Amino acid sequence: MRVAAVQMCSTTDPPANLETADRLVRRAAGDGAQLVVLPEKWPSLGAGGDVRAGAQTLDGSAISWARAIAAELRVDLVAGSLSEAPVVGEDRGANTSVHVGPDGDIKAVYRKVHMFDVLVDGTDYRESRHEAPGDQLVVSVAADDTPIGLSVCYDLRFPELYRILALQGARILIVPSAFTWATTLQHWEVLLRARAIENQCFVVAANQHSEHAPGVRSGGHSMVVDPWGVVLARAGGDRDAVVLADLDLGHQETVRSTFPSLANRRPAAYSWPVVSAET
User: Fold this and answer.
1) Angle at Cα 195 formed by Cα 171 and Cα 83, nearest 5°?
2) Catalytic residue among 9, 84, 112, 131
3) CA 82 to CA 55: how far, in whole Å?
4) Tell me: the pLDDT tens digits for 103-156?
5) In the annotation, is 40 catalytic?
6) Computed over its alpha carbons, how large is the radius of gyration of the chain?
7) Cα–Cα–Cα angle for 45, 156, 119, nearest 5°?
8) Would you tell me how many other CB atoms lie within 10 Å of the CB of residue 128?
């Protein structure tokens, strides 16, 4: 299977972002990609208040476009994520990833479980002010009936999420992101390769790059990693790009059969510790 991770620099200009996404998805399909992944918040990205202003419903312009282009190009498209507008009666929306099939139908919807409430390089990120966490993990099915596990950005730091996706059958882990510049430099590749190795899965990670708004900057370096932890393809840190790789699912089966760490798990020996509310 040929996959593509799309790297772009979204801003608070949705029409311009959509034009860029359209150009890069078409390039990916033209190069033979069957599964294309856009980055986190590709329709609109900026500071906290910009997130709420750019929120859309799943029948808005972003996902309507995603459904149309997936059907036109006959590709599986994971439309990164968007800020999903809150339903009536709710104060917060969600950070939502949508998998659209080659027929243009929505195949799966995943709402980001882990909120990015951190302090990085002096910038206070409080995703939970505008978006509520999801509570369901999602495995969908892409080309050639291949199971894919959905996630978004900060989820990457929570290995239990990916282990569950792998145990539920995922063979490809999808990671649309807007990893900050600082965390991309030190953590991005390490975490992606770790998730690939420990779950013996392919990882397709599409990251944003460069400055989206004053003080809001992502690090690029989108990549595809194989189940042995080998980086099959990557982009640089400061440009739009389409990262292409051919996934050998037979190689994955060999890795899992000759080095059966998933099969050698001992669930009966594991238990979650009891922790205090302050931990």
Assistant:
1) 85
2) 112
3) 7
4) 999 999 999 999 999 998 878 889 999 999 999 999 999 999 999 999 999 999
5) yes
6) 18
7) 60
8) 13
* Residue 105 to residue 121: CA distance in whole angstroms: 41
What percent of the residues of the chain are helix, what percent strand, and what percent coil, each to the nearest 5? 30, 30, 40
Sign of torsion over alpha carbons 13, 17, 18, 20: positive
Closest CA to 177 of 209, 215, 137: 209
| CA distances from residue 85 to 82, 111, 176, 186, 265 in whole angstroms, order as listed | 9, 12, 19, 32, 40
- Specify the residue for token string 């978004």: 152
Residue type, 117: D
Q: Quick check: is 153 catalytic?
A: yes
Q: Which helix (H) or strand (E) holds 106?
A: strand 106-111
Q: From the candidates 40, 84, 127, 131, which is the catalytic residue? A: 40
Is 278 annotated as catalytic?
A: no
Percentage of residues in the chain with pLDDT exceeding 70?
Answer: 99
For the stretch 57-81, pLDDT in tens is 999 999 999 999 999 999 999 999 9
Mean pLDDT of 199-216: 96
pTM over 0.85: yes
- The residue count of the chain comes to 279
Tell me which CATH homologous superfamily contains domain 2-261: Carbon-nitrogen hydrolase (3.60.110.10)
What pairs with residue 147 in β-bridges? 141
Residue with tokens 């966490």: 133
Residue with tokens 């931990």: 279
Residue pair 62/14 in contact (Cβ under 8 Å)? The answer is: yes
Q: Please report, for the chain, the start and end positions of each structural domain, with discontinuous segments joined by +.
A: 2-261
Cβ pair 56, 83 in contact under 8 A: yes
Helix (H, G, I), strand (E, B) or coil at 51: helix
The answer to whether the CB of 207 falls within 8 A of the CB of 7 is: yes
